[in-house]
Each structure stands twice: as C-alpha cells, then as structure tokens.
Amino acid sequence: MRRKSLKDVTSVITLTLLHPLQSVPVQSWPFETESLIRIGRSTDNEVILYSAVVSRHHVELRRKGSEWEIVSLGANGTYIDGKRITQIPVVDGMIIRLASSGPKIQIRLEGETPKAKLKTALGKRVARSKDVDSSKETLVDAQSSETEDTN
Fold first, then answer.
1. Residue-by-residue DSSP string for 94-109
2. Tens digit of pLDDT for each residue in 37-69?
3. Residue boundaries of the structural domains of the chain
C-alpha cells in the first residue's frame, strides 16, 4: 500500500470576507496553486478590498511547505482576537481583522490538518453560503463596522 505524500494532498485555502456586524460570509476567494496570496487595496493583490483603513499591500499569506503563515504589512496592523500580530501560522477557521476596525476575513484550510499545538478555541464555524460571489474585488465600507446610534 502506497503512502500519500504531501504532493498528493490537494491543499485549498479559502479566504472569506465576513459581514462587519453579523459575521456571515459576504464573499469568498478559493486558492489551490498559489504560494503567496496578497490582500490589500492595490489592484495587483489577489484579494482587493476597498476600505480607507486597508493598506495598498496589507497582508500576505505565504505557503511554507505544507503550512501557511500570515505576515502583516499594513500601517494600521492586522489583528486576531483584538491582538495585533506581525507574523503567525495560519490555523484553520481563524479570523483576521485588517486594522482595528476594518474588514474581517476567515481563513479555511482544506486538505491539510493544522498542527495540534496550533489549534485554538476559535471554534466558531461560519455557515457557508452557496451564493457567495467569487469575484476578486470587494467594496468595503470602512464605517460599516461601527453601529450608528439612532437615539
């Protein structure tokens, strides 16, 4: 019986933009063959988010062997659970936030099992939408993450 090598495993990483208030999927981008995925305002990124708080080149996701890491490049920072990060391994299901009040992106890994020591209590699973738009560009209203007081 032949053992599967890492090359036999199809690894798909899917980035999902979450609604700023309800944390439901708004748009998804699946990637299979990329080893570098860039997120930011600039049109040369793989994921383009138009938001005043997002830098032109805000975040890079880099494949390191069979795993991924997040590298924050943006002036306004990248956050996980309210903590600013500079570089961190990707854990399936994690949610990153671009700037302290900016867009939230959930990262899903398929075909790979994250290291047990990297598993966290993020446990929140977002229901997948079958009608999620797969286009590259997204307009993000920077103010939409703040609730307006109508009183």
1. -EEEESTTS-EEEEEE
2. 999 999 999 999 999 999 999 999 999 988 999
3. 6-112
